[in-house]
Amino acid sequence: MKPRERVALSRPVADEVRKTTCYMCACRCGINVHIKDGKIRYIEGNRDHPVNKGVLCAKGSAGIMQHYAPARLRAPLKRVGPRGSGQFQEISWEEALSTATQWLGAVRADDPKKLAFFTGRDQSQSLTGFWAQQFGTPNYAAHGGFCSVNMAAAGIMTIGGAFWEFGAPDWERTKLFVMFGVAEDHDSNPIKMGIAKLKKRGARFVSVNPIRTGYSAVADNWIGIRPGTDGLLILSVVHELLKARRIDVDYLVRYTNASWLVIDAPGTAEHGLFARDGEGRALIHETVTEQVVPFGSKGARAALSGRVRLDDGRFAVPSFQLLAEKYLDDKYAPEAIAAETGVSSQVIRGLAAEIARVAFEEEIFIEQPWTDMNGQRHQGYVGRPVSFHAMRGLSAHSNGFQTTRALHMLQVLIGAVDCPGGFRFEPPYPKPLSAHPTPHGKAEHFGSNTPLAGPHLGFPRGPEDLLIDEDGQPARIDKAFSWDAPIAAHGMMHMVVANAHAGDPYPIDVLFMYMANMAWNSSMNTAGTIRMLEDKDEATGEYRIPRIIYSDAYASEMVAYADLVLPDTTYLERHDCISLLDRPISEPDAVQDAIRWPVLEPDRDVRPFQTVLLDIGARLNLPGFSDGHGRALYKDYADYIVRHERRPGIGPLAGFRGSNGDREGRGAANRRQLQRYIENGSFFSAHIPMEAQFFKHANQAYQDFAVRMGFFDTPQPVTFQLYQEVLQKFRLSAEGLREPLAPETHRERILQAFDPLPDWYRPLGEALVDQREYPCHALTQRPAAMYHSWGSMNAWLRQIHTRNPLYVPGPICDELGLKDGDWAWVRSHHGSIKVEVARMEAVNASTLWTWNAIGKRAGAWALDKDSPEARKGFLLNHLIAELLPPREDGMRLSNSDPVTGQAAWYDLRVRIEKADSSLVSDPQFPPLAQPEAEPRPDELRYGQEWAQ
């Protein structure tokens, strides 16, 4: 439909409509911002935008109040009182930038690793990571380590991609959609639109989640699983499928390592690794000639079972045989796992049967000839119309990596990855593990005034790629890529403050953070973290973390603990780049990226953080930011977006490249590129030809398309890794058979968690506490109307949520005599909180839960110190320790997944006790002083004059 043919949905309210990209959550929807008299009057969805097609949620619509929030910072700040006092002095940008440059320059000249640079959900990680690499510190990461690294790492290592930003269900064709652990604000508009399509077509939607709210509330079937046991449920479904032989054998042979031979030589350094030829190619057993040949040999028919003797005399078996033997064990039978999961054997068996029925009895076939990477021509695409989606409910457990691998294995076994009706990849994924870098940050990678040799984050191929010194000590302050968390692909931001405070593995001089509220809802052990930020060295009287530089747009709790504050703009006042180098807005049928641009100029003395970072980089004379003579290479972030090249012809944006703006993916810089994006609604979209849309992992047309677009320089097909050799290498190190050897302190942990086939073990934090003393689980979910912490200072969204009760299952309420509005103590092994409760029936019987990040510290975010968010709101974070309980040897490790370092927020076990009535939640903290001199309004009104 052309714009002129559309019926106006409302009377014009603006002199001008400017199209940009929303930032009220991570969906990156297109929005139309209506401007009148220099003010925003209205925000609506852009109906031409490929992500949301005009749909907009409460958060997006309330962006107007985010922009005009009284909590906005207005100028650079220098701390003049104790940390946490809120005593600041406004300073000029020149003083702020000179101070930051002085502090950072001294660190870079002395010891770059003494800078810890970590960012929150900034969506510009290709820039911030590049800056940190050029600075030379090994200590960089973004928020993924405490959010969803299990999801990304498990997906990439198993199938070359993962859920959400890496792929999506085939909403148009799927007939059975199964969702695990997705909160209702996650990818909200696309999921809501997708579920609406399912409902319209009569497709079945099953939700597996301890809590029935949001998406789960409209599911056809809700499975109220016990937290942390999803992996066990998935493996029981696999057990049933294998027993019934309802798997896609042809798909497994063609596209997975199911046929690859695994060396069976216990006690040797190669046991459990793949047998390979002299060129490193994996070997299979060919059934016709009964010869061992390389995988992919033309005409070869690979065996999935049988023990064969290799030329060197060792024996080997196909990995699928190991898989089948493992999951056919009766310990995975529905009856055996029903009590642990809280799901009846009939429900488990019924779920497996429905998955099998839809996959194999409702098969889809699309007539579209295509050619695979072996040169074989196919007449069309075979589709298994079962799709899955999962997010933090699986990810935020210490067994989440293996659980997510199990879910991907289930998809692969039924042949439902990147086929019609199944889970579909979004460009630039899929990517094989070999296309990702290994992490850089060993001692030999950095030195004074020297960039790192490569990117900080990546995927180790084995223990040899760990960032440890000769004594096995971590090279990074967060201990990512050490024996503590060997495959911490997104870093471990949740451990930075605690480790820096302890000087373990070494002290730092400067903590530099962007939009990471570590003094409140982004930290475990929040009260303890506050003490760490305030703590001083007894001998010197100096702060244990000497200097903190922080950037944010709003007066969050973390601002009060900074020594230097660099005020950011709102998302409507700056350029942003939603890049294919970072986290694009692609869909399965199209390559897409987007921008934000200043639809309004700031009315305060603030600057976009990305532009500030470029300025500091030039002042520090960092390669790639300065010409070597102290002159900045880029005027600002907009200039960087247009002119920066990561490789020749490859820049942050894929659209409108080339001198004439007619190139896609690869091409020279185009000085009018941003203007072309703005004229196009602030996004770029390139359709994928139908011949290339499915089976991207093995589709010659797609691989050629990916090369043309610049994702790769040569085709990079993906073989799905059901059996993960990288994990087995770590187990061999833990067995003392492979160098470098795992330390004795970590061997049992690695042997338990690094099974090369997806596995389930009890969450670590849960296993280390007395479950009789702490019989309940406690979780948080983000509500549809909020996103992380920055929604609950929004005047409109606050009218939906001003405080968060603790929702308690009906049977527990009956047992304790609790009713709505009563108060209760909730206690963990780490701490206690006093909270208001509400009864709920649609929840797992042993699970307490609340909305995430509604509770605020008094005085923060420009809220009145007596606001409901501060008086009655609360955080579960006070109950969660950043370290696990001590082991028998006294050692305490991070409260994280032992494979990836993912923060294990959801492993929390508690008990609940009825308390006396109260007017406020506990704990309470002294109110934070506002950093600005002007008083805040008592009442914020929306109207013609923006009266306050």
Bin the strand percentage.
15-25%
Mean pLDDT: 94
Structural class: alpha/beta
List the uncertain runs: 944-948
Radius of gyration (Å) = 27 Å
Number of strand elements: 32
State the end-to-end distance.
Answer: 41 Å
Sketch the major β-sheet.
7 strands, mixed
Number of helices: 24
Summarize the structure in short.
The protein is α/β, with parallel strands linked by helices. Helices cover 24% and strands 16% of the residues.
Structure report:
The longest helix has 18 residues, at 93-110. 24% of the residues lie in helices and 16% in strands. Residues 944-948 have low confidence and may be disordered. It is an alpha/beta fold and 948 residues long. The strands form nine sheets. Strands 5-4-23-22-21-6-7 form a seven-stranded mixed β-sheet, with helices on one face. A six-stranded mixed β-sheet has the order 28-30-29-32-27-31. A four-stranded parallel β-sheet has the order 11-10-9-19, with helices on both faces.
Architecture blueprint of SSEs:
Layout: E1 16-21, E2 30-36, E3 39-45, H1 58-61, H2 63-67, E4 77-79, E5 88-90, H3 93-110, E6 115-119, H4 125-135, E7 140-141, H5 149-159, E8 167-169, E9 176-180, H6 188-201, E10 204-208, E11 221-223, H7 230-244, H8 249-255, E12 261-264, E13 283-286, E14 291-294, E15 308-309, E16 315-318, H9 319-327, H10 334-341, H11 345-361, E17 364-371, E18 377-383, E19 386-390, H12 392-395, H13 400-413, E20 423-425, H14 496-502, E21 510-514, H15 526-534, E22 547-552, E23 564-567, E24 576-578, E25 590-596, H16 609-619, H17 637-643, H18 673-679, E26 683-687, H19 700-709, H20 725-734, H21 744-753, H22 764-767, E27 776-781, E28 806-809, H23 810-816, E29 823-827, E30 832-840, E31 847-851, H24 868-871, E32 909-915
Parallel strand pairs: 6-7, 6-21, 9-10, 9-19, 10-11, 21-22, 22-23, 27-31, 28-30
Antiparallel strand pairs: 1-2, 2-3, 4-5, 4-23, 8-20, 12-16, 13-14, 15-16, 17-18, 24-25, 25-26, 27-32, 29-30, 29-32
